[in-house]
Design a protein that fits this description.
Chain lengths: 408, 237
Amino acid sequence: MRLATALLFATLSGGLLAAESHSHFDARIGYHLVDPYDLSTHRYLLELSEKWEPISGWTLWAGARGMVAGVAQEQTQEVWLRDTFLQYRNDWLTVRAGNQRVVWGEVFGFYYADIVNPKDMRELGLGDLSLNRLSVPMIDVVVSFSAAALEFLAIPRPVFSKMPSVVGDFAFPFHDVVSSGSVSFGEDSGKDLSLSNAEFGLRGSKQWSGTDLSLFYFYYWDRIPTFTAFVVTPSPLSVSLTPFHARLSTVGLTASHDFSPFVLRLEGLYTAGRNFNVVTRTALTTFTSDEAVGVVECDYEGIEKTSIGLQYALHHIPQKVEGALIPQGESLLSFHVKAPAWNDSDVELITSSSLNDGGQYASINWTLPVSGQMELSLHADYFFGTQASQLGRYHHASRSYALLKVFF
Amino acid sequence: MKKLLTMLCVSLSAWAAGPSGDDLVKRADEARFPSGAVSFSVKVTDKTESSEKETLYRVDTKDGDLSLVTTQAPPRLKGRKLLMRENDLWLYLPSIERPTRVSAQQRLTGEVANGDIAHTAFARDYSAEVKGISVIDKELCFELLLTARNKGVTYHSIRYWIQKRNNYPVKAEFYALSGKALKTGVYSHFQPVLGRPRMTQLVITDALKPTHQSILLYSDFKTESFDDRHFSKDRLG
């Protein structure tokens, strides 16, 4: 109580050792690249983040986000609490308590080892990874050594990822089951505050000359639900989908090594007890299986101002189940290049190809710094492949947009 | 002719009996940055034919082996951090929220490589050999060839000129492994900094496009008491 009073008094009295602001406003408008070429995104987002250090070693962070999205099927006005926590740090210890994000992983893009925080998956996780990562109440303790660290975290009230709506561009294919009639989702915000619901993680990391290695364990609830179907009314047909989140244990490692000018990055995860949905012509069922994920990436940094990377990811489950939304083995080969362009702008190209079903994703992004406070991006996402392929099923969601970011 | 030969012999004998290349580089390092744990600000102005932009960094460094570079302005780039532990470099971007290993050769801004700001001592990274004596701006200078001690450093080799009179660095030409000239650096504005005169301006010019320049102004030097763990990869967030 004395500490809280001292922090509040120091903050209000203006006796700050340091204060920082990291805020931005984004305006984004875009259209579909496939027929009917209508509005795909129309979003305004304001993210405010402030940091105060009233007493040496103690830092208070406060952040909030407001968002208005105006596409006809997915209109939303939201205000979220972002990173809002109290931090204590000395030479060897960092303790953070409050709403925060913890990021694990080494490879470029996608969330393989980044399993701690829930994500906003309403746009499949595309775009700014930081914006899609949701802050949750957590206690995070990091003990630092000279070139190593040990981290322990606890999430007392788990929160789940935000999933696409039934009618959105990136909706799950449940209309394969209910071809006519309506589908609604049950409540799926998170678990209640209790010790039995709490999530725990442990991570150790070490750096040698040229090499980084981390090992981690996380005991948590699956961020992505599986569903069971419940018929509300038979005629007209109305189906309610009840979400279920399995209790999971994941062990993993991440590593990188500098073979200048190449950098090799690795991630490997093994998860026990994950549930998967199976969609057949007449039923929606689930099955339980362990899951292994391996990712290897090689980046080339020998060209000035340019980064080039090639990544191979393998997702494997031991069982083969007909109709499963996740195939038994899925290989994804991705390539990215970021290079300078006209007038201090840069161009980034990303392609991902599923080696199993031929589905592909490609994106191109051109960013021009208009000033020290403003940047303009022109961006396009395109999905190729058949409706049955993991990426081709989102072909209708292919889009291009302009994004203006103002930093202050 | 006899007089000229005498002068040359005197210069050559002075050079032969003088300090080694490595000693000269150590002395020039001291005239560039204070040793020990210090922090300072660097304002980088990148100029081309059509544009000019400024970036402000705060640098925490210890013994030339450990550096943490934090971008303070402009707002678009604020919060980016570059950590160096000997030859290992990590970049922390607020948009990614975790440190990523990068190479020292990657450019930070304009003509400035990550290592130009993060590495504050040549003596640790390069072995030096005195190649001769030449005159720059009417000053006698040792001309040295610096060769990288390992692959992870910013440049493969450097031609380096150090004033004979006071061992201040004057000029450097930076080369890639292929032998291609990358850029030149000119050291100037020696002013009292933490007890002795030190360089407070470095102008880096692209070897192929001389109109592309980065001007680095160093200021606000402070003696610090950083623990090694201040430079930990796991404390960048």
